[in-house]
Structure formats: C-alpha cells, structure tokens
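S1.2 Input.
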Amino acid sequence: MTIWLTHFIENFGYIAIILLIAVENIFPPIPSEVILTLGGFLVSGTKLTLIGVILASTLGSIIGAIILFSISRNLTLSRLEKLLETKLFKLLGFKKDDAQKAIDWFDKHGIGAIFYGRCIPVVRSLISIPAGIAHVSWTKFLILTTLGSLVWNSVLVGLGHYMGKNWQVVVRIFDDYTLVIIALLLILFIYFGIKWYKTRIKK
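S1.3 Output.
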C-alpha cells in the first residue's frame, strides 16, 4: 500500500492528497496518519512543499466533512422523532422528545467538540454527523472544521517531514493512540448507556 500511495502522490501531487484525505474523512480505508506523514516525508524528494501538503490535506478534510455534514442535515427533527418512535428504540427506552433534547445539548455544549473532534482518530470523521443532525450553522461548522483539521494535519505532516525515512514510526505510535481512543470511547459508551438506561427504568 505504501508503494502505491507513494506513486499516486508523486504522480498527482496535491490533487492526490486532497482526494485521499477527502475519501478518508468519509470512509477511512487508509488512515489519515499514513497519508499525512507520508506526504510530509515526500516533501524532501518531490516538488511538494510543506505548506502545500498541509493546505491540500486541510482542503481534503473540509471537502469530506462537508459531504457528511450535508447528508446528516437531511436527517430532520421530525425524521429523528419518527425513528425514536419505532418499536426497537421504544424497547431501548427512548422517547420522542429525546431527539430535541439531544439537538439542544449539542447546540449548547457540542460546538467545541467539532474543533477538538477533528484532532481525535475515529471521532474526527464521525463528528460531522451529529453536527449536521443538530443543524449547526455552516459558518461555525466550516470555521471549526478548518481550524481543527489544520492543527491535526500540520502536526502529522510536520512529524512525517521531521522523521524522514522513519516516518512509519509516527504511524505506529498513532496506531497505538487510536486503539486507546477506541477502547476509551467504547468504555464510555457502555458506561453512559447503562447509566442512562437505569435512569429511564427508575422513571
């Protein structure tokens, strides 16, 4: 895969980086850590520049995020309420007004999550979905997504450039980091799921 990615980026330059990162943000077949650190490494032996790779990858991130955000915005409040009224969700203890409560919570507390979420593996791709469902304004979404993506991409491209031929060491470190994040998210999901369900049972 590394050989293919190298040839693809060498042949198509910034267009390849934009395309790869955009696809990774929607459905990550290739982790961004690999693309970004490799891109940083290739700056030394190609016509690519460090700033160019960072800007191209950030543009790719924005394009991918916009696609998910746009799709999620079509999931209106009424559609969510209908979904929560199905037998499956009723058995799980959900109520119709939970949809509005979730949207209100994200409007009040979740805006910052768009920025910070762009810097967390796995979450960085998925954060566009709740933002779209909550109908966060396009201006806020684009600003926070751009800033968060710029930070994440700058760090990884910079590390790839700094490490040179050892850029894959960075990927291995972030792979471990990603596994820890997934494990923590799973634990938190189970914990809050059980806590929420017990609360509903008592009510």
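S1.4 Remarks. Residues 1-202 form one domain.
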